[in-house]
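Build the 3D complex.
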Amino acid sequence: MMKNPYLPLPMKMVKNFTETEDKLIHTFTMEFLNESDEKSFPYLPGQFAEVCVFGKGEAPFGIASAPTEPGFLKFSVAKVGVVSTAMHMMEDGTMIGVRGPLGNSYPIDRLKGKNTVVIGGGFAFTTLRSLATYILHPDNRGDFGNLTVIYGARNPGLLLYQDELKEWETRSDIDLVCTIDRPVDGWTGKVGFVPTITKEAAPPADENTLAIICGPPVMIKFTMPVLEELGYKPEQIIMSLENRMKCGIGMCGRCNVGGKYVCKDGPVFTRAELSKLPNEY
Amino acid sequence: MIISKKDVPAFLAGLMGEYRVFAPVKTDTYTGFQQISLGTEAVLDFSNTKIPPKGILFPQSEKLFTYSVAGETVKVEEVIDDAKSVVFGVRPCDAKSIALLDNVFDNDKYQDPYYLTRRANTVLVGIGCNEPASTCFCTSVGCSPFDTTGLDLLLVDTGDAFVVEAVTDKGKAIVTTAGFAPASDADQAAAANAKAAAAVTCKVNTDGLKEKLDVNFYDGIWDLIHEKCLGCGACTYSCPTCHCFDIVDDAVGTDGCRIRNWDSCMFPLFTLHGSGHNPRTSGKERYRNRVMHKFKYFVDNFDAVACVGCGRCINNCPVNLDIREVLADIRGSEARLDK
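Done.
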């Protein structure tokens, strides 16, 4: 009997947390109802899943939790459509479904032994959080080189995972640089757009460095020249794409960029790979 | 082996104990595949059906699973159709399209159990094309009026009878059970003559097309060729190789089912993000994607053109946007390499 990739695994949504001060992003913590289902869901940072709201439908979200955090999955979701709106209104303890893990992941094996700079903007920090959490885990930390995280948002209240950012700030094995667009009273971090801060804070590229970047298109657009200036080659810049998806398994036909499906062949691509594809995303 | 045309209804009726039998049926306005309950319902004199038999394996609308939630119990039950079927009267172009769709539904990472279960349980009985229609261009896209790709049996029309070629073991099993008479040398000669006489008159020159599409994504030609397209999606719904679908829920409260429906890359909502961003904003991008998917992306991924030359998109287009002319225009266009 072949595995049916369309069937959701039952989970319980244990926590619906309002992540940002504008209330547009909620973070959902979900637990598998069956232990065997959790075992059938081995994932890596950068992968996504289809979250199923029974009675409404399903939608794809990057997995914000890390494989080093067993027992639950986390998704940070903006309220934009039918499924995400239903999720935002959901009470803790509601039954929910998930299918996946889907897509490829950040290239963990390639990152091992290398220095990594993670660049994120706004609420596109979800799978980057997963990656940083994975690298920072005591079992894994020794496998990776320096970790620099540059994370920007319009204002402090829009930064995700603020408790964790505070904890990361106190650690010596991660260099965290948070920035906001305009000065705000009481803010002790950087002020400025992500590209500018990247220029100041990102380590210059050598063969041993990789950049992982995820954020709104405008941030990506202006950060690319900065990374180039710092010496990052297209093979050293790793990006994660989003497109509208339904099946998540390369069949329903809508998330293609050229001949590649974001769901099945991505969502993670190097800049070198993307430069071979049409600019249609 | 051979079967007389007058024995076809009895042959089909004989299959009905074990199989669902689908065949071309004439309605008031068109000929299309339907499940039949009488052997006599099948028509043998048709050019091709309005809609391809694709929907027998990949229905226009199908239930994937049902679900219900009660307290902390979630019940999910898949709805797999594993009944055996025979599809009689499949044209070779449509059979080839199914062989192409196999690549999609059984890809390098995932298997679609709905399609693949039906596929494994379905016998495709083809009828070669003695008289291809004026819009047929199968020979230009790697198919032919008697191509056996994807078929289990091929019937060759010799006038009063069909000479039967068993292509696969599944086909052989049907033939053995049905007990067809052996074909005489004269019958075989008649079949060979029918094959030789069948002429696809329409030729589309595809020399260098792929190479052109490899570099012309940003070419100005795309601004022009989509212009009369209404974006109605008739081409995609009648295309035997189109496989795009949508997934929706039909539910009352938290009990319901998940359904998939054919969708079309010609529709603006197809690629619209939740944020409002749309990577394929206008008919230009959408039409380009359709052509690119058929003649470049599919070739890159599966080493075959995703067009079998059935001509349905030509016949069904309300504004006569003719893919044969589009391909000619593209081949004649000046390439501009931007990336």
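Chain B is about 30% helix and 20% strand.
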